[in-house]
Design brief:
Low-confidence stretches: 1-14
Order of helices and strands: HH
Structural class: mainly alpha
Strand content: under 5%
Shape: elongated
Radius of gyration: 14 Å
Mean pLDDT: 83
Length: about 80
């Protein structure tokens, strides 16, 4: 999925991939898929006791960044 966000292809476990600004439906759909996969990956680790607070913090930051971008995207869509 990294190829859907040019410039972010070198994603590592330490980096987020949700951009602060999402302007197109394609970018929004891609960001949704990225966040979904990250949440699913984390959900699969937790039952086994693999709880990494740094990783959870990065996931929270990505989720908050996505929420801001989603609100902005919705506002742009409402503008016509």
């Amino acid at each position: 999925m990294a190829s859907r966000f040019p410039g972010l292809a070198a994603r590592t476990a330490m980096d987020g991939m949700i951009p602060a600004r999402i302007d197109t439906p394609r970018e929004m759909a891609s960001a949704m898929l990225v966040l979904h996969q990250d949440l699913a990956d984390e959900a699969s680790r937790i039952p086994g006791g693999d709880v990494d607070t740094a990783r959870l913090g990065r996931l929270a930051e990505d989720t908050e960044r996505f929420a801001r971008a989603l609100r902005r995207f919705g506002w742009l869509a409402a503008q016509g």
